[in-house]
Structure formats: structure tokens, C-alpha cells
């Protein structure tokens, strides 16, 4: 949600890919791709954003904290980022999502959006469940 220099962004993509491979992810068994090259993420985020009300997003604590740290000038991208996360999850019809405690509310938003969409248009998205790590 923060602007980055193109060269830094490209290097971050390469570094993240290297870290994923170094962790032992086998590209022969998993699909690795740049999410930004899949337009359906943004397209679904737009559709889901049209089904998500502003008060729900404004209540998210991450929005409140980041907005406060940015002198009350949080961006629209920051506000709608949880809807993009929901699109990232729902696009692949995910049933279980590994999340940290700090992301539980965002997953709950994805669950709510899936339920709302299904109620309005018929069963389409599974309602994803959280997989919390035990640290």
C-alpha cells in the first residue's frame, strides 16, 4: 500500500522468490507465480469491494493503527487492502488459510464477504477457515 521504486519492487520480488525456494518449496510440486500478473485478483477485488460496506472496513484495527501512524491520512489502498486479501483467498476457492493472530479479522472479513456473495448470488465461494499456528 506504499509506493515503491520500480527497481526496488523488482528486487523484492526476486528476493521473495529466492526465500520461498530456499525454504524448500519445490516448484515441480507447487505453482509459483507473480500475483500482480493475474488480473483476476484486482477484478475480483473490485467486485467484492462493491459488496463491502465502508463502516465494516473502517472498524478494522489495522486501518485505525496505520491511519493514525500516517497522521490520519490513510490511503484508499490501505483501507481496501483487506478486500484485496479476501479476493486473493476467494479467487482460488480456498477452504483453509494459514494466518497469524494479526490477520484473523481480515480472514473473518473474507468469510463475511463469501457468505454475503453466496447469499446474494448462490453458493459459489467456500467459506474459508483459519489455520492458526501454535507459536
UniProtKB/TrEMBL annotation:
Its EC number is 6.1.1.2. SUPFAM superfamilies: Nucleotidylyl transferase (SSF52374). Belongs to the class-I aminoacyl-tRNA synthetase family. InterPro entries: aa-tRNA-synth_Ic, Rossmann-like_a/b/a_fold, Trp-tRNA-ligase, Trp-tRNA_synthetase. This is tryptophan--tRNA ligase. The keyword Repeat does not apply. Keywords: Aminoacyl-tRNA synthetase, ATP-binding, Ligase, Nucleotide-binding, Protein biosynthesis. GO terms for biological process: mitochondrial tryptophanyl-tRNA aminoacylation. It is an enzyme of class 6 (ligase).
